[in-house]
Amino acid sequence: MKLQLSPSQFSDIINAKCIGAFKDGLIQEVVYDSRKITRTSGVVFFGLNGPKRSGKDFVATAYEKGIRFFVLDCAPTTLAADANYLIVDDVLFALQALAAFHRKQLKYPIVAIAGAIGKTTVKEWIYHLLADQLNVLRSPKSYNSQLGVAIALLELPIEGDLALIEAAATKPGEMERLHAMIAPTYAVLTTANAGLRHEFSSTLAYREALKQLTIGAEWIIDGDALHDFDTANAAALLKQIPFSDPVRMHNARVALACALRFGNCTPQAVATLPKLANRLETFEGLHGATLINDSYTLDLLAFEGSLAFLKSVSQDKATVVCCLLDEHQLHFKAELQRLLEADHCREYYIWTALPEQLPTIDNKVVLIKGNQQLTAALLSKWKRQTHSTVVRYDLSALEHNLKQYQQNLAPTTQILAMLKAQAYGAGMDQIAQQLIAGGVNYFGVAYADEGVLLREAGIKLPILVMNAEPASFETCILHQLEPAVYSLAHLDAFIRVLIAHNIQAYPIHLKFDTGMHRLGFLPQQMEQVLQTLSAQPEVLVKSIYSHMACADEPHHPMNAQQISIFKEICDYFENALPYAFIKHLLNSEGAAHFPEAQFDMVRLGIGLFGVNHDALFEAKLKPVITWTSQISQLKQLNKGDFVGYGSSQALAEDSQIAIIPVGYADGFKRNLSNGAGGVYIDGMYCPTIGRVCMDMIMVLAPNARPDAEVEIIGVQQPLNDFAAKAHTLPYEILTSISPRVQRSYTND
């Protein structure tokens, strides 16, 4: 952070009551995540409360790392004699007050960028268009929330020419707070036309919130009211935009309209607007390596963020940093070295060209930063797979969705995250780590071998095995996995294994059938189950749970019936057992529709990926998955020509078709043949022509370019829509994407 405040100045700004004797020195930096503490001199820790945690919970960790200044909403139970505690009414408000103070010290203008979609893209493209003319500063990644904006402002140095700050509101009242912090000189609105936004009742209500950000701005660019530019120069520049799909074309026009307010933009700058897919993308590398590609921008602020992300991903693994610079970026070299040394990076390389002999990366986590052309060449050598079809998972969207559910639940309600079927095909390790950071309490898997994979990845949270087969009981015990028990025979079999190992009080989960009629004890077996539990000290009931059959239909009478039966079962065992146990009934749909039945814990699965049958609740969620491919070949065919196996469909007219390397072996369902499904290319829907093959599809693509990206699932074709065309559920689509399809992970 760029602060230079005495402790008394700092206390006055945030209106804090002070406990402890202040020492001399300056407060120069704030930190809000105890995991990201790298420096301690002049650093103050803000103990932010989360949906499930108090800021006080992290004071001990921060203190152990050397922090001695703390901002909290109440004093911790134990006070260290050499620490200072600043008590405020609301820690986030205090942080925002500090950000607003810092903003007032800046003499250069700030452009605030808001809108339903496209904020980060427009921000980065404005930066790209102006960076060779001005010292342009900008918020890192997608720091646009109530917390993110405060941090972004505090990162801004005193000197500069222009700053670009994103702003996002998810509910009424938030934009006013962002406006008070940013005090924007100018405002850019990308678009309000993207359906309902989070907790706003309508697009009109969301648009009115966006207007709050523009109050006092000297000029405003509104993407929804952006017409053709007046000058011949602008018209010529528009022709240089390297995209043709409507979403990126719109964003490029908005960015160009803003950049032209500050000077001329070169045709070269417009023609080289980057695709922003390379933001902290994580790939599987050769020989057990993990590759982090962050090639979309290189500046010192972004580099510090990249190093922090490297630490969060690497855990205890060795790390390597590879910086690839253009000739005009060589002035960064000394400063990059300073940052790498300060961050205790033991192995790093700064290159202007790839060396003939590359370093060994076996079982290491590698950050690749800098020149896009060079990083692409390096990735091609180190990536484990080269399939041009890629499925990307947005881990920040996953964490956002988790928070939406947390806000719908009581603070004491625990969350069990389901990671069965490789976390719905997403990969358990990456998903699990992000969910742990978000505050989940439990994991659930279908089979014991899935739990073993989590343990081998270093996951220490309790793990419930939903379908613990008798053959896996030894595995459960060896790896401290907690089996669900669903019948008297099943319970007896597990107890026998425990007796053989001389184990007592092993945690189990009793599953009761309250109406789903899959696995589970029947309610009338409660007394027999209790008799066994009372006679066998080998087991201890960790939880009792059931599963709702119609949670996605809130008005179905089965729901009330199951909730009532489950409550009776829990009451029976609460009265009979001499200890407490966890009670859980609701899945993702239930957690959205029946908060009154949340009991002690809820189980979240598909909802974490942005899917919910309630349109209003789903509007609060963000899509996690994007599935893309490339064009293998474009082909001109004549009217009447047949395409694909069985000659099942003839062309109605002379047409261009595109052949795309994805087929039913990758998860693109065969029932999407002959126009039943399709993809988007350059913003145009391209239906399938002929039958879906094992490894490829053919689509009608009259205007496609050879290098155009193909969207299978994404902004234009959401997961729900793709699943509906395939006459199946999002669950099946997610879990059917083949392991041979390359996975990558972004985290903004």
How many distinct helices? 25
Name the CATH architecture of the largest domain: Alpha-Beta Barrel
- The CATH class of the largest domain is identified as Alpha Beta
Record the strand order, biggest sheet: 23-22-21-20-19-18-17-24
CATH topology of the largest domain: TIM Barrel
Mean pLDDT: 89
Instruction: Output the radius of gyration.
Output: 28 Å
Poorly predicted ranges: none
| Beta-strand content bin | 15-25%
Task: Give the strand tally.
Answer: 32
Overall description:
With 748 residues, this protein is of the alpha/beta class. The chain folds into 5 domains: 89 residues, 3-Layer(aba) Sandwich (Udp-n-acetylmuramoylalanyl-d-glutamate--2,6- Diaminopimelate Ligase, Chain: A, domain 1), CATH 3.40.1390.10; 166 residues, UDP-N-acetylmuramoyl-L-alanine:D-glutamate ligase, CATH 3.40.1190; 104 residues, Alpha-Beta Complex (Protein-Tyrosine Phosphatase, Chain A); 226 residues, Alanine racemase (TIM Barrel, Alpha-Beta Barrel), CATH 3.20.20.10; 122 residues, Lyase, Ornithine Decarboxylase, Chain A, domain 1 (Beta Barrel). It is built from 25 helices and 32 strands. The strands form 6 sheets. The protein has an 8-stranded parallel sheet. The chain has a 6-stranded mixed sheet with strand order 29-28-31-25-16-32. Helix 14 packs across helix 16. The longest helix is centred in the C-terminal third of the chain and has 20 residues. The mean pLDDT is 89.
Provide keyphrases for this structure.
single chain, 748 residues, alpha/beta, Udp-n-acetylmuramoylalanyl-d-glutamate--2,6- Diaminopimelate Ligase, Chain: A, domain 1, UDP-N-acetylmuramoyl-L-alanine:D-glutamate ligase, Protein-Tyrosine Phosphatase, Chain A, 8-stranded parallel β-sheet, 6-stranded mixed β-sheet
